[in-house]
Amino acid sequence: MVLPHTDARPRPGRTDRDHLPARLARSARHRPRPAAELEAWLAARERANPFEITEVPFAELTGWSFAPQSGDLVHDSGRFFSVEGLHVRTDGGPVDEWWQPIIHQPDRAILGILAREIDGVLHFLMQAKMEPGNVNGVQFSPTVQSTPSNYQRAHRGARSRYVEYFLEPERGRVLVDVLQSEQGSWFRGKRNRNIIVEVTDEVEPHEDFVWLTLGQIHDLLHRPNLVNMDARTVLSCLPGHADTASADGTTVGAAVARSALADDDEAWQPLLQVRNWLTASKAGRTLVARQIPLSEVRDWHRGDVDIRHRSGRYFRIVGRHVRASNREVAQWRQPLLAPCGTGLVAFVVRRIDGVLHVLAHADLRPGYRDTVELGPTVQCTPDNFSAENRPDYLDLVRSEQVRVHYDVLQSEEGGRFHHAVTRHMVVEVGADFPVATPPDYVWVTLRQLTAMTAFSYQVNIEARSLLLCLRALR
Q: Basic and acidic residues bias located where (predicted)?
C-alpha cells in the first residue's frame, strides 16, 4: 500500500514513533534464530553466488585512468569516485603538515534498511552482499547500499533492489533519516544518507535477503566481519531502546541499559554542555585541507600496481578486477584503498556515581566537512606510530589494567577499501581512574551519545560503529 500525501497538520498526542524505543527493546530481546544458523545462511549465499577478485596493474584498470594534467585517478564517465591529492596543515596533533592521496566521492549514497513488524516484533531486512574489498567476501549489509551512480545505472547494470522505498520514503514511516560522514582520513567530505523506513505492506525478500531482529544482529556483532560497516552506521542512528527491566542486574549489559536511560542529572554533565564542548572544539581547532593534483603529493610513489608511502605505512591504492554473479553488473574494475595494518578503535568506559560513561574524543580529520567530530577514546592504526609517538590511551586499552567487555574484529566498507579491518574494543576502568579529562576528551552517557547521532557530522563513523557494539553487550 502506498501512503497518500497529506497537507494536514499532525494531531497532538502520541504517535507510533513515541512507542519506537519500546518496540526496539522488544526486537533486541527477540532471537528466533541463533547466530550460528545465520552465519551458515550467509555462507550458503556466498556459495550460491560465486565471485572472483584479482589484482590488476593500473595499466589494465579498464575504465580508469590518470588524468593528464593532475595525475588524479578518475573514471572515464566522470562518475563513481576519484583518487586525488590533499595537502593538510593543522595546529594540533603529532604532525602539523602532510600530503596524502584521498578518495573524493561527491555522490551521497543511500544506506537504507527496511523495517517491518513480523508477529508483533520489529525486523530489519538485511542483505547478503559481496563487496570487492571485503576480507571474507559476503557480509550482512543494509537493504540498499548504493550511490546515485549505481541506482541511476551509470554502470548500465541492473537497478538496486528495494531502492524505491528510499527514493520515495512516503511509501512507509521514516524511523531514521540523517546525513552522516565516513572515514575522515580516507574520504574527502564524504557523506551518506542513513535511513530506515518502516513498511506495513508485505515485502517478499529476495533469496539474498533476510529479515532479522535487533537481537539477532547484536548476536552477530560478537562474531568477526559478519555485519558490515554500512549496516552498523545505519543501525547506530536508531533512538535509545533500553527498557527498565533490562537495566536491573549486575551485568555489563545492565550497566549499558542504565546508561542509555540516564537523565542529564545522572550524567557527568548535561547534554547541552557536551554539545557546547564539541562546538568549541570545532571552532577552536585549525585545519586547512587543500585539494592538490595527485601527481604533486609528496612522499608517495606511483608504481605499476600501487601508490604507496615511502615509509610503507598508512595505506596503498591498488587495482582490482571483480567478477560477481549477483551484483548489478557481472564484472568491473576499480581502484581500492588498502590500509597497511589493522586499525583499532576503543571506548574506555567508567562508572561515575554508578552510571556507565564513555570517554569520547574530539577527533580532528582532514576529510570531515566540519573539522572535528566526536570519536572513540582511541582511533588509530597502531603500526603507524612509533613507541615515542603513541596516541593517548592506546597503551591503556591494550594493557591488563582494564576489564575487556568487547574485543572483535570488524570490517570497514568493502566497496572502496581492500581488506580494511578494525579491532573494536570496549574496556572498563575502575574507580581509581581519574574523572578529570584532557581538554579534547569528555565523558558522555550512552543516552547522550545516542542523542548526538541524530544530527549530521556530530559523531564519527568509528564511534557510531562502537555505539552499536556497546548496545550488543549482555
A: 1-21
Residue 165, φ and ψ in degrees, nearest 5: -70, -25
pTM score of the predicted model: 0.93
Q: What is the DSSP string of 168-223?
A: SGGGSEEEEEEEEE--TTTBSS-EEEEEEEE--S--PPPTTEEEE-HHHHHHHTTS
Residue 3 in this model has a pLDDT that exceeds 50 = no
Domains of the chain: which residue ranges?
A: 245-288+340-471
pLDDT tens profile 410-427? 999 999 999 999 999 999
Distance CA(17)–CA(177), nearest Å, equals: 13
Is the pLDDT reported for residue 213 higher than 70?
A: yes
Given a contact cutoff of 8 angstroms between Cβ atoms, the answer to whether 129 and 139 are in contact is yes
**Residue 75, CA atoms < 13 Å, CB-side half-sphere:** 17
- Rounded to whole angstroms, the Cα distance separating 448 from 100 reads 35
DSSP lists the bridge partners of residue 417 as 337
Average pLDDT for 24-32: 96
Bridge-based pairing of strands 173-181 and 191-198 is: antiparallel
pLDDT tens-digit profile of 155-197? 455 678 999 999 988 889 999 999 999 999 999 999 999 999 9
The CATH architecture assigned to 245-288+340-471 reads Alpha-Beta Complex (3.90)
Q: Grid coordinates standing for 454?
A: 541524530
| Neighbouring C-beta atoms of residue 223, cutoff 10 Å | 15
